[in-house]
Amino acid sequence: MSYESLVQGIRELVREGLPEGVKVTAIELEGPYVVLYTNQLEAFLSDGNLIRQASQKIHRRVIVRTDPEILMTPQEAEKIIREVVPPEAEISQVFFEPETGEVAIEAMNPGAAIGRQASTLNDLKRRIGWVPTVVRTPPMQSKTVDEVRIFLRSVFDQRQKFLKKVGTRMSRDRSEERIWARNSSLGGYREVGRSAHLLTTTNSKVLIDCGIDPGSDRTPYFNAPEALPLENLDAVVITHSHMDHAGLVPALIKYGYDGPIYCTAPTRDLMALLLLDSLKIMNSEGRRGLFDSSHVRKVVSQTIPLRWGETTDVAPDLRLTMHNAGHILGSSICHFHIGDGDHNMAYTGDIKFERTWLFNPASNRFPRLESLVMESTYGGHRDIQPSRTQGAEELTRFAEKVILRKGHLLIPVFAVGRSQEVMLVIEEKMRLGKIPKVPVYLDGMIYEATAIHTAYPEYLNNQLRTQIFQQGDNPFLSDIFQRVESPQKRSAVIDDREPSIVLATSGMMSGGPVMEYFKSWAADERNGLVFAGYQAEGTFGKRLQQGLPEANVNDNGRTVSFPVRTEMVNAEGFSGHSDRVQLVNYVATLDPRPQRILLCHGDESKSLELATALHKRFGLETRVPYNLETVRVL
User: Fold this and answer.
1) What are φ and ψ of residue 91, in 5° steps?
2) Which stretches of 417-513 are DSSP H helices?
3) 10 Å Cβ neighbour count for 216?
4) Which of 64-78, 260-274, 325-339 has the lowest mean pLDDT?
5) Which residue among 325, 395, 416, 481 is least enclosed by CB atoms within 10 Å?
6) Looking at the predicted structure, is the pLDDT value of residue 533 above 80?
7) What is the pLDDT of residue 17?
8) What is the CATH number of the domain that holds 204?
9) Does residue 515 share a domain with residue 603?
10) Could you tell me the strand order of the sheet in which 528-531 lies?
């Protein structure tokens, strides 16, 4: 629908349906939304049918805001908020979002801030014009979350211009040609790493994920003809923040992409954290990256965060809905509605079809689904993982063994996901006396990533959310955990002769602080190492798993060699990926079941084995494309 027809449709709606005295003072396109500014916000808020009718009339998501001319200044509004909200609410921070007309009130006691039957909030709406929302103050302050909010406020004017440009581009006229759709494999097919998929339709181009290869310097096939020029992409959609899915998004911006990036809010924040950390590691190792910190800031400013279940136009003939993937915080299955119901296609990213200590299982119900692009990391017929309980027991047994022999236990972890699950298990087992109580050191980004988890409780599973926010029992704040904040602290931990447990990044031992501990502890057979996450081919962690007898690692620019005598075990029950049984069960329970499945994110043999099994059991069309192969789905 063109801009002119959108505006005309809204004008007709205004003439037909608004109560007397209610005026729409301005109409703006902001990214995927149509924004109506009004002199009577309360009329829209009290009658939900007005917004619903507007959305149905123009076939776009509608947001209603108070006319800026009558909107109270943030300074005046905050003063009234602090006067109206009772002291027992314990307001910690107030964040104004000018681009949405909302104000977020962080409070230790949200119920007191909301008031009986939302009486306090309704009073605030009438008095300040801003739409107030109340969120619980995170039990752990996140520097990343705070800095992202401050940065977005500082670039408000530029972001408004950007959103209007996105909205205008999205509203261009569709081609009259019959609609078609195809998926191009730009990375992550018959391999693990550098995930990138290009969904192309008659009218649109959308890139889903853009990751690095953790075992090499290979990038997605940006030079494929269908991907160029990057400026022609309508959108980039990120399933989750791990670097094999999001590690090269800033490079897209460096080389010409200036459009929207869609993901959940926690994915945006975690992505910023991980991208900046990867730059820090590269700089410390004297390597030159494909982007710099200015491109990471552009990623944040160009991101349009979406909530699970929220359907949004992202291109003239594509609508996107994100659903829980169960993998890490904010990870999403991305469901695309193509054309006017012509085809429905979903990309799983990485999924976990099992309730974990952190998350509910991956969503398996969609309104419609004809094609599915699914991961196959553990798709081989022998890829049966231990249960979460078995993984916890293996970690408990080995930790007790290492500590009793006065050794150090090193656990390489991804900062996001696995580290938090390992923390929950260690805290519980030490509290119950099943692991001797010793210091548990957190090195790298683990503490900050954990704080981000507590800033987005709606993305955690129900049990953990209740435990932290209703029962006041936050296992992440246990006194056993100590943050390693400096090289001096790290050296002290390494030299300490008393037993300890260390969780350190990176999870595949491809750099980061974990290597400092490993270099010092690997030659001592009293020490132990637990692999709690996937180790990709070509990584140092994978070579250790395969029995590397001697290590050659970089130490301040020179190569040092030492024997590997530390005892190593795999605690596979902590994986954030579904195993073979879970992947098959996921397809078995999909509602509706797709007609076609394309498999990616797995070694070639595993993808092929899973494709064969799914075809035989369900009679589906299954394919394992090669990189640079295009499959027409419509």
Assistant:
1) -65, 130
2) 418-431, 446-455, 462-469, 487-495
3) 13
4) 64-78
5) 481
6) no
7) 62
8) 3.60.15.10
9) no
10) 481-484, 440-443, 500-504, 408-412, 528-531, 567-570
pLDDT tens-digit map of 217-243: 789 999 999 999 999 999 999 999 999
Among residues 574, 594, 621, the one where a domain terminates is 574
Are 151 and 297 within 8 A, CB to CB?
yes
Above 60 in pLDDT, residue 256?
A: yes
- Check residue 441 and give its pLDDT: 97
* H or E stretch at 555: strand 550-555
Mean pLDDT, residues 458-465 taken together = 90
* Measured distance CA(561)–CA(274) in Å, rounded: 29
Q: Is the dihedral of CA 462, 466, 469, 473 positive or negative?
A: negative
Confidence of residue 10 (pLDDT cuts 50, 70, 90): low
Q: 89 CB contacts (<8 Å, ≥6 apart)? A: 107, 108, 109, 110, 112, 113
Residue at a domain's end among 525, 558, 574:
574
pLDDT digits (tens, 9 = 90+) for 17-38: 667 777 788 888 888 888 888 8
Is residue 395 very low, low, confident or very high in pLDDT (cuts 50, 70, 90)? very high
Helix (H) / strand (E) element for 78: namely: helix 74-84
What pLDDT is recorded for position 625?
Answer: 98
Instruction: Find, among 477, 475, 459, 471, the residue nearest to 135 by Cα.
Output: 459
Same-domain status, 361 and 238: yes
pTM above 0.85, yes or no: yes
Burial 489-515 (b: 16+ CB within 10 A, else e): ebeebbeeeebbbbbbbbbbbbbbbbb
| Spatial distance between the Cα atoms of 346 and 320, rounded to a whole number of angstroms | 9
Q: Note the pLDDT of residue 423.
A: 95
> What whole-number distance in Å separates Cα of residue 437 and Cα of residue 109?
33
What's the angle, vertex CA 428, arms to CA 423 and CA 433, rounded to 5? 125
The mean per-residue pLDDT over the stretch 102-129 comes to 87
- Whole-angstrom distance, CA of residue 104 vs CA of residue 97: 8
Residues 37, 53: Cα–Cα separation, whole Å = 16
Tell me, yes or no, whether 100 and 183 share the same domain.
no
Residue with tokens 């081989």: 380
Q: Report d(CA 386, CA 199) in Å as an integer.
A: 35
Find out whether 318 and 299 touch, Cβ atoms under 8 Å.
Answer: no
On whether both 369 and 417 belong to a single domain, the answer is no
Q: Kind of pairing, strands 550-555 and 528-531?
A: unpaired
- The total number of structural domains that make up the chain: 4
Contact 539, 510 (CB under 8 A): yes
Residue 15 domain-assigned? yes
Contacts of 227 by beta carbon, 8 Å cutoff, 6+ apart: 184, 186, 198, 207, 221, 233
How far apart are the C-alpha atoms of 10 and 55, rounded to whole Å? Answer: 9
Q: Indicate the helix (H) or strand (E) that contains 82.
A: helix 74-84
* Rounded Cα gap, residues 72 and 30, in angstroms: 22
In degrees and rounded to multiples of 5, residue 142 shows phi and psi of -105, 120
